[in-house]
Amino acid sequence: MGLFGKKKVVDEKSSRLNQVLIMSLEIEENKIDLTELPETINEDIKKEINDLKFYVFEYIKQLKEAFVFSKGAVKKFILNDYSWVSKENIDKLIEIGLNRL
Q1: Closest by alpha carbon to 49, among 3, 76, 74, 14?
Q2: What SS3 string covers the chain?
Q3: What is the pLDDT of residue 34?
Q4: Measured distance CA(19)–CA(29) in Å, rounded
Q5: Phi, psi (5° rounding) for residue 70?
Q6: Its pTM surpasses 0.85
Q7: Residues 46 and 37: beta-carbon distance below 8 Å
Q8: How many whole angstroms separate alpha carbon 4 and alpha carbon 66?
Q9: Are 77 and 56 in contact (CB under 8 A)?
Q10: d(CA 36, CA 50)
Q11: CA atoms within 13 A on the CB side of 8
């Protein structure tokens, strides 16, 4: 069984977090000047999304600096700490994180 072998139960919160993460990653990817998520989004969700991005981007940076970067390691890190993140969002986070360096 690989990294994604377990079936996740998608609940309402996970679904909402992934939707907001998609929005946040699109903002990040397109380098729109909007640095914050819209005001209609709950502060707890904003904090969780911003924490996720910060820690993942920092983790990617540290792995690259140590010359031990692998997508598998980043995926495992994300799934261990943020199990609600979808596969598509994991790939997008890694892609954006690599482009930020």
Answers
A1: 14
A2: CCCCCCCCCCCHHHHHHHHHHHHHHHHHHCCCCCCCCCCCCCHHHHHHHHHHHHHHHHHHHHHHHCCCCCHHHHHHHHHHHCCCCCHHHHHHHHHHHHHHC
A3: 47
A4: 15
A5: -150, 140
A6: no
A7: yes
A8: 26
A9: yes
A10: 9
A11: 16
Instruction: Give the pLDDT of residue 1.
Output: 45
Contact 17, 49 (CB under 8 A): yes
Q: In the prediction, which pLDDT does 35 show?
A: 56
Q: Which pair of tokens denotes residue 57?
A: 């981007």
**Residue whose entry in the numeric block shows the structure tokens 């969780």:** 48
16: which 2 tokens? 């909402």
Q: CA 32, 36, 40 angle in degrees (round to 5)? A: 120
